[in-house]
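Protocol step 6 of 9: fold each sequence in the batch and record its C-alpha cells directly after the sequence line. For illustration, a two-sequence batch is reproduced in full.

Sequence one:
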Amino acid sequence: MSATNPQLRYRSLWLLIGYLLIVLVVYLSLVSSPIDIDTRLPYQDKLFHTFAYFSLTFWFMQIYHIRQHVLFWLIFFLCLGFFMEYLQSFDAGRQSEVGDMLANTLGVLLAFVLSRTRMRFILAKMEQLIH
C-alpha cells in the first residue's frame, strides 16, 4: 500500500460517483420488489452480488491507496454487505441469505486483490488521457 493517495484532478467527481454507487446498492438491497434480470446464468444472483461489491470496493481503491484508508473502505464494504443482508430479513418480500453475504465478501476481496496490482491506477491513467 502506498504512503500517498493518487493526485486526481477530478477527485470530487470520482468521490461523488462512488457515493452515488453506494446509495444505489443500498437502495437496490432494501427495495421490497427488487429488479429481476434473467440472464439464464446459474447463480446469477450471487454473480450480481459479487459484481456490485467488487465495483464499489474497486472504485474506492482507485481513489485511496493509503493503508488506513484502504482498510477503512474494506471494512466498510464488508460490513455494508452483511448489514444489507441482515436488513433484508425484516422485509417479507426479501430474504437474507448467507450465500449473498459470501458473494458480497468475495466481491470485496477480489477488488482488494486487483487493487494491489497496477490496475489501481485506472482512474489516474484515464485522467492523464483526458489531459
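Sequence two, same batch, same settings:
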Amino acid sequence: MKQVEIKLLGRDFTVACPEEEEANLQKSINYLANKIDEVQKSGNIIGVDKTIIMAALNITHEFLNHDVTSSVHIVDYKKKISNLTSIVNQALES
C-alpha cells in the first residue's frame, strides 16, 4: 500500500491505497475538493462537518441519479465511493 498525502479544507491527511489505484484516488480527491468548494461558495453551510456532509450528499445524489447502463461501470463507482468514504472518515476523525 502506498501512503498518499492529501490536503482538504486546509487539513493534511495521509491515505493508504494500492499503487495501481493512486490515479483513481487522486481523481476522487479532486472531485471531492471541487464539491467541497461548491458547497463553500454557496455560503449557506457553516462548519467543516456540515460542509463535508453536504459535499457527500451532493456526490451521492449524482451517483443515484446516474444512468448505470452508461459507459461507466458500477464497480468503478463503488471504488470511488469507497475512496471518498475513507477520505471523509479521516477528515471527520481529525
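Proceed to step 7 once all outputs are recorded. Observation for sequence two: Residues 33 and 89 are 15 Å apart (CA to CA).
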